[in-house]
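Researcher: Next sequence.
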Amino acid sequence: MLSSAIAGIGPGGYYAAIAVLLILMAQLTRTVNFSQVAVGMIGAYFSVGLAAGQFQTSIRLPFKLPMIVAVILGILIAGLVSALSLIHISEPTRQAEI
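Model: Next structure:
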């Protein structure tokens, strides 16, 4: 029973992160936008992976970062993904003739 509860903490953390990101974006912009949540989850994924020293089970890093450094890098990576999506998706759409 206890092992099942402990095993559920990981997926529960993902659901909690998604919920917090959805609520944050809904409160700030007054619309629910799932793409912003996806970018936030990319940052969270990289933060946890850098702090743990591995991504999934097959990609192991030769180092582990302190949690605060991993969180800052995760935020920067999410910002980079967001900027790249703006440059490659939004700008050409704005300049397209209809």
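Model: The beta strands are 54-55, 59-60. The mean pLDDT is 81.
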